[in-house]
Amino acid sequence: MQPSSARSEARHRRFHRRLLPFTATLLLSLAASAHAPDSAGRALAPSDVRWLQRATFGIDSASLASYRKLGRQRWLDVQLADHDDTLPPAIARLIASYPAISTPPQELLAQAAEARRQLKSMPEGDARVAAKKNLQKQARALAQQAQQAELLHAIYGSNPLKEQVVWFWLNHFSVYAAKGRVRLVAADYEEHAIRPHALGKFRDLLLATLKSPAMLEYLDNAKNVKGKTNENYARELMELHALGVGSGYTQHDVQQLALILTGAGIAPAAPRRAGRFGRTRPGFVRDGLFVFNPDRHDFSDKTLLGQRIRGSGYREIEQAVDLITRQPACARFVSRQLAEYFVADQPPPALIEAMAKTFQRSDGDIAAVLRTMFDSPELTGGEAGKFKDPTRFLVSAMKLAYDGQPISNAQPLVNWLNQMGEPVFGRVTPDGWPLDSASWSGSGQMATRFDVARAIGSGRNKLFMTDTDEPNPATPRPRPAVPALDSPLYRAVVEPRLSQATRVALGKATSAAEWNTYLLSSPDFNYR
User: Fold this and answer.
1) Regions of the chain short of the pLDDT cut 50
2) DSSP 190
3) Contacts of 54 (CB under 8 A, 6+ apart)
4) Distance CA 274, CA 278 (A)
5) Residue 285: beta bridge partners?
6) Three-state DSSP class for residue 27
7) Which residues lie closer than 8 Å to 377 by C-beta, 6 or more apart?
8) Segment 245-298, tens digit of pLDDT
9) Side-chain half-sphere of 65: how many Cα atoms within 13 Å?
10) What are the beta bridge partners of residue 287?
């Protein structure tokens, strides 16, 4: 080990030795509620702070100011109306610079197909190995850009409630980027399947995910054809996306839905074929990269959930989606999932029932269901807070530490989320990341959070570096600034709720960076 590395490792060990006595105490405490002065000096009630913590990934100065100006109901009206889904100009430019965002998905698929064709034509040898590695590197870069774009939206989006809902649906309709071509179209999935429908009708959202190339690739429906049925997507659509386990559907229903979905796939990637593929054929449907090919469809009559669906082609898919999303079981399942994410690991049955009634009455209007939940006293009525999953922790830490200041490098965000075990588009199985607190509050998770808290709290995190920033011993970079977490925002919404154990720990910090780390790793901050 080099001397500098040894010194760095020694400092790291000393830091953790100082931290451990405090964290042992902190992990036993919960956040305390108290009146908090807002930026105008008026009291922001503890109930308002807690409600806003639930409605956002984390409170920043912008959301606090708008809440104080509008009040709870008008603030909620604005969020659910979804008229403002903008980003700071610097963040918008950063996202637009990603090829995963700026390049049409059909072009990305065509480029990858051509690269694979050229790779197959190459003779065995070092050149082919290098070309294969480069192709894999490009695909990974596209997936990382999709992850970065989603995290930047979560941190800087102008509609903080919607950003939580977008993440929720990305997790609910989970896809795994490392499977097949999913990484090439993961960004398109978030931008065009999830985000536009996040606060709309659940039926439209389900249909958008059904027609997305990411979902068709991930759950193999692109391989689901007449005479060679693949039930993967049909099963997960009913079990994980719309109805839930034990809701009354049978294996026969799965088989019938799989037959209905035969012929639904992805347009050919080759540019010569993609433009005119199937355009003039009767019964052929093309919507972006989604295609319904009648030649691959089983036109037999089906019986789904007790209802007869006549073999008619693409119309069967729309009828099936309508039938499934109008089931009382769908209303209860979706309502429970939302309540578990926003309210509690075991949401009050009365709240779930109220949300389900709204779902049915409004024909699956997601915004209306959320309004029922956010207007309910059960939202913040529980004694214990909801423990933050890694995404909530990371986004809320960034909101408190940098409070809207644009970063220029989002890769550290992706790395930290990977370390904490909840990468965007990183769940292998289609059930999405768990929503309960117990899955994210183990000792290993907390130890990793301490490291992430230290990286954010110290400012030594490369968030403000770019790809062109190269280390140069002759002109060393200035020491990164330590974020000022002891800010008006902190004093308004965090400090009044701190437990005594956290206050004692903060009082023993020997530097601003250490103080920041203790705060971000405290139970008070990790519960909401």
Assistant:
1) 1-41, 43, 274, 471-476
2) I
3) 342, 343, 374, 379, 380, 386, 528
4) 9
5) 292
6) coil
7) none
8) 999 999 999 999 999 999 999 999 765 554 555 566 789 999 999 999 999 999
9) 8
10) 290
Q: Which phi and psi angles does 364 have, rounded to 5°? A: 75, 30
Task: Pull the structure tokens for residue 331.
Answer: 């209303």
Token pair, residue 102, equals 């700026």
- Please name the residues in contact with 370: beta carbons below 8 A apart, sequence gap of 6 or more: 80, 161, 165, 199, 338
CA distance 257 to 113: 31
Structural tokens at position 352: 């779930």
Amino acid at 291: V
> Cβ distance 153 to 163 under 8 Å?
yes
Distance of CA 255 to CAs 213, 242, 245, 249, 315, Å?
22, 16, 16, 11, 18
DSSP state, 481? Answer: P
* Sequence-separated (6 or more) residues with CB below 8 Å from residue 439: 389, 433
**pTM greater than 0.70 (yes/no):** yes
Q: Which helix (H) or strand (E) holds 350?
A: helix 349-361
The DSSP annotation for 395-463 comes to HHHHHHHHTTPPPS--HHHHHHHHHTT--TT--SSTT-S--SGGGG-SHHHHHHHHHHHHHHHHS-S-T
Half-sphere exposure (Cβ direction) of 35: Cα atoms closer than 13 Å: 4
Q: Which residue has the tokens 């009630």?
A: 45
